[in-house]
What we know:
The active site is at residues 81, 156, 180. By secondary structure, this protein is of the alpha/beta class.
Amino acid sequence: xxxxxxxxxxxxQAAKLAAGEFSSRELTQAHLERIDALEPAVGAxxxxxxxxxxxxxxxxxxxxxxxxxxxxxxxxxxxxxDLCCTRxxxxxxxSKILEGWVPPYDATLVANIRANQMPILGKTNLDEFAMGxxxxxxxxxxxxxxxxxxRIPGGSSGGSAAALAAYEAPLAVGxxxxxxxxxPAAVTGTVGVKPTYGTVSRFGVIAMASSLxxxxxMARNVLDTALLHDVMAxxxxxxxxxxxxxxxxxxxxxxxxxxxxxxxxxxxxxxxQLDGGEGYQEGVVDSFHQALTLLENAGATIKTVDxxxxxxxxxxxxxxxxxxxxxxxxxxxxxxxxxRVEPKEGPVTAERVMAATxxxxxxxxxxxxxxxxxxxxxxxxxxxxYGSALKVRxxxxxxxxxxxxxxxxLVSPTSPITAYRFxxxxxxxxxxxxxxxxxxxxxxxxxxxxLPSGLSEGLPVGFQILAPQRKDDRxxxxxAVLEALVNERxxxxxxxxxxxx
Length: 501
Ligand code: GLN
């Protein structure tokens, strides 16, 4: 019985909790048992909070018994990426430099989750400071893809994606700076949304590149993703870029779309620059085009759209992002919190402690980006690199504005390839190039969703939907319809085809 509970969707879990079919303690316990059984193989979590999760579950159960009016997701457990601060619970960003650090406060999105009375199962693994796309660059351990334990689960929110795909959590929080929600969702057959920048507060989310960082929801289906979106989104005066009119009410949009199953009048633009070609796996492109046919059958019109400056988006991102990384990561100095390493010999000066701490505490990828970022911001190179990249960013934003004058959504494959084997892409440049499909949305601050479109050589393929700023509802409307059509074509939810762990 208990392992069956973990197979239910979050919406089903919520409905059955409300109907009194089982308690939040039973539900949370079922997930903890599955976590304990599978973690040696999957490694989705950096730490699991058995006691905290069960205490939160008991509190909901008690409130329900007393007849309290509860939020829809009350009692449904959730996993949180270890980039988000959780008061009293270790938060590391998967870096040695924060090993053992216990935040004295909650990230706003975590506070929102607690206000909705959702037990937090634990903190999920990531590439150190969210830099990467494979979760191989965690300082602690790698995470396996439940579809094939020899393959990467994507990244940097790979722990959250793997926890969902292994049924170790029904809902999970991710963050997306250049694709870190959408790409892991794509390669694990799950759903992930990068909301409009400013929808979910960044307060208490350890900063990578602040003008791009976007926390968002991940789940096994579109409705569950929408339910978590509505919990996470809020206006937050503690984040100066927070939107006062953050898009919410996404679950209602999904339910209406599922009832109507109609896309009549929807104008879909296929981004010509991201529609296959060099570096794209054939099965990925085939699956993408099959999904386009499904959209067309549901009444959408499809046309090809050119975004001429997309060609330069990747380069701009890999200048702007490290520039912001280098300044954000300057705070890890061994003085105030986190790791402190004193020089082995010689005087203990502030500068020498910083050098020893940062040398020992950061992994190679973090160091690479700090050095690159410091270089592009240095007096002699600022205009040539950082300044030019900002101009390209504006051009990319204008391309999107122009495109959205003609179409309602833009689409592409989420990732050019499916999950690859550990160690297969070990040089940084090869890894960076795989972000070509996801990065433009971050530069433009627009919302994006990845949902499964099918399989290629037995592995899941992700379909990406992009919409104008604040039009997150379009992702959910189209995603809900496409999900149903894909499920109909493959005969059930794609994830059911994953090898059973
Ligand atoms: N893979 C991208 C990078 O390495 C995206 C990371 C992210 O979105 N956090 O920068």
